[in-house]
Amino acid sequence: MRLAVIGGGPVGLVSGTVLASVGHHVDVVDIDASRVERIARGVAPFHEPGLDDLLRAVVDSRALSATQDLNDVVPRADVALICVGTPSNGDGADLSALKSASAAVGRALRGLTNGYRVVAVKSTVPPGTTSKIVEPILRAESGLSDESLGVAMNPEFLREGVAVEDMRKPDRIVIGVNDERARALMEELYRPFSAPVIAVSPTGAEMTKYTSNALLATLVSFSNEIAAMCESIEGADAAEVFRALHADRRFRPPTSRPESPSTITAYLLPGLGYGGSCFPKDTEALAVWARARGVASPILDAVRAVNAQRPKRVVELLRSRLSLAGARVAVLGLAFKPGTDDVRESRSLDLVRLLHAEGAEVRACDPVAADEAQASLNGIASVSRDADSALRGADAAVLATSWPAYVALDPAHVKTLMRRPLILDARRSLDPVKWAAHCEYLPIGVRA
Ligand code: NAD
Fold this sequence. Notes:
By secondary structure, the protein is α/β, with parallel strands linked by helices. It has two domains: 2-200, Rossmann fold (3-Layer(aba) Sandwich), CATH 3.40.50; 236-443, Rossmann fold (3-Layer(aba) Sandwich). The chain has helices spanning 10-21, 33-40, 51-60, 70-73, 96-109, 129-142, 163-168, 180-189, 202-230, 238-246, 279-292, 298-319, 347-357, 370-377, 387-391, 404-407, 411-417, 432-438; strands at residues 2-6, 25-29, 64-67, 79-82, 117-121, 149-153, 173-177, 197-200, 328-332, 361-365, 381-384, 396-399, 422-425, 440-443. The strands form two sheets. Strands 3-2-1-4-5-6-7-8 form an eight-stranded mixed beta sheet, sandwiched between helices. A six-stranded parallel beta sheet has the order 11-10-9-12-13-14, with helices on both faces. Helix 18 links the parallel strand 13 and strand 14 (440-443). It is elongated. Nicotinamide-adenine-dinucleotide binds at residues 6-12, 29-32, 35, 83-86, 97, 100-101, 104, 123-124, 156, 158, 160, 277-278.
């Protein structure tokens, strides 16, 4: 099949690359010229494990190309996948990129009555968006009826950091359609994958995606609420509490994907809170959407409130041991999670800003996201790639993102670098016995 993928971000480029690798021909369209130029050379414009090699292979074999010219590729495509960003506008989802991409796709299809095509929304959008906003735009701009144009909603569940693996081996494919012809074409698109296809309505597909992210965010905030309780009493350690919970067979990995290292238990741990380009804006968008419909969302509201508190709580813990004004604090890890250079809504950045506001001199580091983070931390923190330069002369260090390289740091070496070897483990990723032998080890989730 020929596909046009509109938007070459993590979702568009990873899905496009994997779909090209299983036999489809994919044209990735993006309005960002430098992004298009890199993709066309087979170079991923962001860090995602496994993507560089696969992208180079599909570009070399001409299964994938990149362009800014949507009009050139959309008319030739059997399916166009809209994968543009839907960030927060401060009070819900900003659908401007989605609307303009839909209008451009519609215009590119104007008058084309040969054959049958489907335009599918892969972006995460509030329930009702595909049917009430995208489809009317597509029909008005293209002039096409459902005889020649089908409209679908096909949410994406990949996780940054393991996106290629997730896309290659999806747990399920959700297809939201209102007619059989569109459903058949979307099923054809995903035939090379062995995952079960769940066909629902477009609105059902949109709600499915929000439900998934809202539940995972709820687990994170629930864990952090328990962590805060454990921090208030002697003897209860949240890490031990959750280790015991994870042993419950109801939390074990699905046997269908024993190779997948992370299960739902990855969301049931004490930490700094959820960040990234999805959970924060999707929980906000769902709550705003519900409020506009007169539906109360007290659980979601609490999930968001708990999340907002978490970096503050970590700063308080550090303050209980150290006067922050004038102290030099190293923050290890700036990406919102390991395996990505994405710093959107990263809790580490919030932590850095809070420490700076307390008067601390912050030296932050990240092995892959240093450049991305630098722009938002100008004048607030110095940013490097390696941990040693951040740790040198520091009065305290916070492990904020569990990069394997940071988890593997040698505490004896770290002690020699720091002015005061006070280590706050905000992810509970460090070996407490090893670290306590050399440093002042301060874990979250337990009374300090
Ligand atoms: P992104 O913002 O990182 O990338 C979007 C890309 O679309 C950018 O390169 C941008 O230049 C391009 N673009 C914007 N308008 C365009 C237009 N009119 N024509 C062509 N290109 C255009 O977004 P992302 O992280 O890839 O996410 C895309 C969507 O998928 C969002 O709705 C997001 O919520 C959802 N999603 C993201 C993830 C994730 O892990 N990032 C996972 C599942 C779903």
